[in-house]
Amino acid sequence: MVRPRLIGDVLLTTPAIRALRRRYPDATLIYLVEETAAPIVLSNPHVTETIVIRHRRGWRRVVEDLSLARRLRSKRIDVAIDLHGGPRSSWLTFASRARKRVGYDVSGRSWMYTDLIPRPRGYAPRHSVLNQWDLLVPVDPSFGDPPDPARDRIEMRADDRARASVEARLAALGVSADAEIVMLHVGAGNEFRRWPEESFSQVAAALAADHDRRVVVVIGSSAESAAVERVVAGSKRRVAGARVVPAAGWPLGELRALCDRASLFVGGDSGPMHIAATSDVPIVAVFGPTLPVHWAPWRPPHLPFIAVEPGPLECRPCDQRVCAPGDFRCLRNTGPDRVIEAAHQLLERH
């Protein structure tokens, strides 16, 4: 299986991994993934071997890919599934020399596969997990039945080491063992999905202020540490002594463990939202240019989830390459009051 990146996209392939293991309990399942998303695959109990590749360009990438091709050929792979469809993943699928090579019917690359799957065009109302599942059908016709989110939910497990590390981090931040935790993810993979920091600050302040034992833990990647600090500072300007703490740069495994400790996750359509979906934590997700029908948490439907959307816009959904109106209205038109209301609703139910 080849799916280099990104975090959310790799997570959305885990139902297919589980299904392959269920159908072929004795098979060797190998997964090629880039470093950023590797912890998701390394923790997956159904994967036999994880091959971690680096995101490189130019001649360094050529050298690494030739080395990968030799390594893959030595394994005498029977079936290779390209879960991505990009130039690199299609070439690595071809270079494996597997007898059956499954991939999307993409112009200029279809010759690299033995079995082609039509790639969905436009914005059909179909979840990404279903698109990945289509690639299993040439492997075995039994995969023609669609996946069930209750049986084939996305998967990432937390281990005891990550749980212990999270408890130590929370204690160092002054968060007591009986505190009610709200996770607030303020980052995004690109500016098209980045809700305004001021809106996040208002949400953090409101949620921290209305419960004595509640602590809002603001999360983000290492590269987003400055944004995390600004959101924390902004919330404390709004509410003196607000119980809002920063948690930038935590490893993915620890974020997953924190989900089990939390009472609510709030964030945009991003990798951490899908990490939260691998747990049972209630989720409030802000959708801007993307649609929940494509990217909502893929997990049992009884688990609480509210999607906050901007309403109908002619430019939504979009391909996230250029904002046609120029003002990111799909994000800015979604006010913090709606997110706060949704958060209160799920916290009360929880």
Main features:
37% helix, six-stranded parallel β-sheet, Rossmann fold, three-stranded parallel β-sheet, 15% strand, 2 domains, 350 residues, 14 helices, alpha/beta
Task: Give a quick summary of the entry.
The chain is of the alpha/beta class and 350 residues long.
Descriptive report:
- Helix 7 packs across helix 10, helix 8 packs across helix 9 and helix 8 packs parallel to helix 14.
- Strand 3, helix 5 and strand 4 form a beta-alpha-beta unit.
- The chain has two domains: 138 residues, 3-Layer(aba) Sandwich (Rossmann fold); 190 residues, Glycogen Phosphorylase B (Rossmann fold).
- The protein has a six-stranded parallel beta sheet with strand order 8-7-6-9-10-11, with helices on both faces.
- The mean pLDDT is 95.
- It has 14 helices and eleven strands.
- The longest helix is centred in the first third of the chain and has 17 residues.
- The protein has 350 residues and is of the alpha/beta class.
* Low-confidence spans: none
Order of helices and strands: HHEHEHEHEEHHEHEHEHEHEHEHH
Q: Note the overall shape.
A: globular
* N-end to C-end Cα span: 37 Å
Structural class by secondary-structure content: alpha/beta
CATH architecture classification of the largest domain = 3-Layer(aba) Sandwich
Instruction: Give a quick account of the main beta sheet: strands, pairing sense, barrel closure.
Output: 6 strands, parallel
Strand content: 5-15%
User: For this entry, what is the oligomeric state of its chains?
Assistant: single chain
CATH top level of the largest domain is Alpha Beta
State the CATH topology of the largest domain: Rossmann fold
Arithmetic mean pLDDT: 95
Q: Tell me the Rg in angstroms.
A: 21 Å
